[in-house]
Amino acid sequence: MPLERADEAHRLIEGRTPLGKIVLRPDSAST
Hints:
This protein is about 85% helix and about 0% strand. The protein contains 2 helices and no strands. The longest helix is centred in the N-terminal third of the chain and has 14 residues, at about 1-15.
């Protein structure tokens, strides 16, 4: 269920500053 993943990502972005978006980007590329 991608919805669960999206919820977690949103939570991380909300809990973290806009920098979280940049950190999430490299994370995906690492996969």
